[in-house]
Amino acid sequence: MQQYNTIKAKYPGALLLFRVGDFYETFGTDAVKAAGILGIVLTKRGSNNGAPIELAGFPHHSLETYLPKLVRAGQRVAICDQLEDPKTTKTIVKRGVTELITPGVSYSDNILQQKTNNYLASVYFDKNTMGISFLDISTGEFLVAQGNADYLDKLLQSFKPSEVIFQKSRRRDFIELFGDRYYTYELDEWIFSGDYAQETILKHFDVKSLKGFGIDRLNLAVIAAGVALHYLNETEHRNLQHISSISRIEEDRFMWLDRFTIRNLELIGSANENGVSLVDVLDQTCSPMGARLIRRWIIMPLKEKKPISERLDVVEFLINNEPIRESLIHEIKQIGDLERLISKIGLLKANPREVVQLKRALHAASAIKAICEKTDNQSLNLIAEQINHCLIIRDKIEKYLQPDPPVLIIKGGVIAEGIDDELDRLRKIAFGGKGYLLEMQKREAELTGIPSLKIAFNNVFGYYLEVTHTHKDKVPADWLRKQTLVNAERYITPELKEYEEQILGAEEKILTLETRLYNELVFALSEFIKPIQLNAQMVAKLDVLLNFATLAIKNYYVKPQINEGSIIDIKGGRHPVIEKTLPQGEEYICNDVFLDSESQQIIIITGPNMAGKSALLRQTGLIVLMAQMGCFVPAKEATIGLVDKIFTRVGASDNLTSGESTFMVEMNETASILNNLSDKSLILMDEIGRGTSTYDGISIAWSIAEYLHNHPSAKAKTLFATHYHELNELTNSFSRIKNFNVSVKEVGNRVIFLRKLVPGGSEHSFGIHVAKMAGMPAKLVGRANEILKRLEQERTGGENIKDSIKKVQAQAYQLQMFSIDDPVLVKIRDMLNNLDVNTLTPVEALMKLDEIQRILKN
After folding, report:
1. Which of 269, 405, 607, 794 would disulfide-bridge 804, Cβ 3.0–4.6 Å?
2. pLDDT per residue over 577-588, tens digit each?
3. What is the DSSP string of 349-393?
4. pTM exceeds 0.70, yes or no
């Protein structure tokens, strides 16, 4: 316990798994936590200051089962192993922490999700600007950036780190700026000094300057990156050669998607339970690397024509060449997670079966290279050029390892025959002992001339040579007699004794030797990390492009025309997610959208609830985004003038934890749009102003539309969905504002949603029809219709809405007891209205009540 407490003190805040024999044990408060999270038995043993010590443990071979549960529960887990063989010491076994696992520093397959990165984010707060780095120890990716709080907030929401580290003194600042939804850990201030951080990075990459990485001027980002490397070192991760490069997130190369847009367009996740996001529809990749890359492409679409066109051309080529497409898909499926596999090699944590998988992956990569080389597509030829056969590694694995080794080295049978003479000899002794003894027996019989010589074994003195009395005079002088029998003598020899010692210790020696040879192999493989990482990147890119081709064929997507102009012209556009979630047999109603800077910059879309206004806004944003990812789009035709920013203001939600109302959230998001728009921006606004009073809302929505139209430098293309039909008047005053509505058809008292965008404004919201469809009580729906009719009558008479509502409320006091649709109640109402209460005697009143009662009974 003294040893435990000493080690525990070095890792405050971590749950310590303490190796004792064949078990990992936890003690005290750690035991209480572990028992609760893992569902294992909590016991008590011994005492500390008179109080019993809580204890909970599990077998050491179950670590991979229990460790993920602890990490997913948000625990930092320190693994304390025995650092020496208990047989070699007579004192307490030396122990030490060999690894500290945190949510952001994990590489175990049981902890990580295959299709998503596991980023550790490091944030450095300066005065007005901040630095940030994202490091995935499981893949070796290392990215940095710096900027203001809004930019960092966008990056955090895009990359979704599993853990964020920052200065201890900045906890309040972090929560105020970025919220409390991240798992965080605070570090001492001195770690964030510029010199220390820079020195840490230079030392890791073994370079004199950071110019080669293009980050030498990003001082704050460099500090954040240095802190991330320091943190890995502190968590006992020192074999980091797979983190072989660092690069900046080039903001100017990618379309700007702010945090509201990523959320509102549901790109990576949905706010709704069981909701479907864009990535759920688009990700049909064959490899985990491809699945992770497509997420990056979705949140970081390109905004330069050349690379977008190159991607689109490859997709088109793959669509038109089925044999090539199918062959490439087949080979990629053989590769597995090459990116994380080579990272495990770098960490020296790969098991034998994973190393054999690396060999298979490299064979498949060579096949991919050969296929791409034979095509007449320049982009595929370039991918082929960058794929490395890695023949040295393949041959080394082929030569060193058994074709189908066990997962654990301790199982034995990992290293192939012919690699090490001593290993082969020991195996022959341990597993081919009978043959070895027969050879010895045959040899000794020939040398001594004793044909009846036998070698046998007993538990008293082990292996022996047995000679009958007939031949005992032929026994060599160096044989040592151990036992005399009636008919024979038993002897031992130095060779036989040596063999006995060998065979008894052979298995242990084999394990030691195999472990050494295997570790040497893994260490040798780690020298080739960079070319294999490049292979993984090329395979991931090809996987995503093949995925785009498959999607285009399956979902009837078309190739968008990309240009530098200012026109967005979508014909027959569809929402890529909604069309996949429609009931069987129902077809998605497609729509045309045209926006430019000269004639139709802003479209005001009116129409009833549930008609499809929000879907139309979102599908336009998603089509533009997909086009600039290099993906074909759900439309009949699409011409996209490059967009540099997509802004959205969709849906309403309170941010109650920050004390912000729906309207405040709405205004914050709108302000972000208006302060950052450009001439190439696309703005999607849905129901601006509905979080406040009607007149305030109309005024704000009107002024926003006016501001966007009259902006001196940025004619941002805008879709503006609204319930405020008063905004239809804008088109009369502003040349580039046009009215459209999503049409409906009234059949009797029913409304059919046609979901078709047509020119002209709408004057009806059909909200009461939607309430009826939702299952509101019939009495309530009837009353709502009555109030609506009265309000409309009053307003046509010139009264303002407040006076109209007051009149309806006054009438409601008289009518709330009776429904005018019921003839019995109408009769009673008329009877009461005709009574002169001032002349009514008590007897007459009772008689009237009796009459009303009889009417009700009948």
Report:
1. 794
2. 999 988 888 888
3. ---HHHHHHHHHHHHHHHHHHHHHHHSS-HHHHHHHHH----HHH
4. yes
